[in-house]
Write a structure and sequence with these properties.
Blueprint lengths: L25 H10 L7 E5 L5 H8 L4 E5 L3 H13 L6 E4 L3 H10 L4 E6 L7 H8 L6 E12 L12 E9 L2 E8 L15
């Protein structure tokens, strides 16, 4: 896989042999960054980071800082080496803990992110579970967005009771990108533009 835009455009990212890494495809990744208004100067959280290709793409395109969460130590070590090799060390952090624990730590430390991207293993119930962990929206900056990559066979409809509003959904074969933002409070207009922004 190669970075498709920004300062590291064309740089190759190799996937460690073995393990359960399922990188976001070039088509889905390029669509994601075309849909997002901009990543320049944003804070980016990459959950279930795996190869780190999405967060690395964000850094390449100008994100100010990215946090990668990947519990597999071998995969996380490869990601740290890749970040260093690309010259992103001062703008990136890797947390080698399960996602729910990372979210607790980040929440406790008062962190906020302009863009949160999550790509849990497909069809294991982790998409809905992760959305529930993020459901109160404390980690999402006021104008921020949460993007969940999940299987077309998984539903996000169980999230009606939490404080996130589904604003857009795009399908690419078996893969779906669902976009969420915090629900508007009071009488604010809850309808976004066609892409949810």
């Amino acid at each position: 896989m190669r970075i498709s835009g920004g300062e590291a455009k064309g740089r190759l990212i190799r996937i460690p042999a073995g393990g359960r890494v399922r990188p976001t495809t070039d088509r889905v990744r390029e669509s994601l960054f075309n849909i997002l208004p901009t990543v320049a100067e944003t804070s980016f959280l990459d959950l279930f980071a795996g190869s780190g290709i999405v967060g690395m793409e964000a850094l390449s395109r100008g994100a100010a800082h990215a946090v990668f969460v990947e519990k597999d130590l071998r995969v996380a070590d490869a990601l740290k080496a890749r970040i260093s090799g690309f010259g992103f060390t001062g703008r990136a952090e890797v947390m080698s803990v399960p996602v729910h624990k990372a979210l607790e730590i980040l929440r406790r430390n008062g962190k906020r992110f302009d863009i949160i991207f999550a790509d849990p293993p497909y069809n294991e119930g982790l998409a809905v579970e992760t959305l529930h962990f993020l459901g109160e929206g404390e980690l999402i900056a006021p104008a921020g967005v949460l993007v969940m990559q999940h299987s077309a066979r998984e539903t996000t409809g169980e999230l009606q009771a939490v404080s996130l509003l589904l604003t857009d959904k795009r399908q690419y074969g078996e893969t779906v990108l669902s976009f969420f933002r915090k629900e508007a409070s009071g009488g604010e207009d809850r309808q976004g533009s066609p892409s949810g922004y």
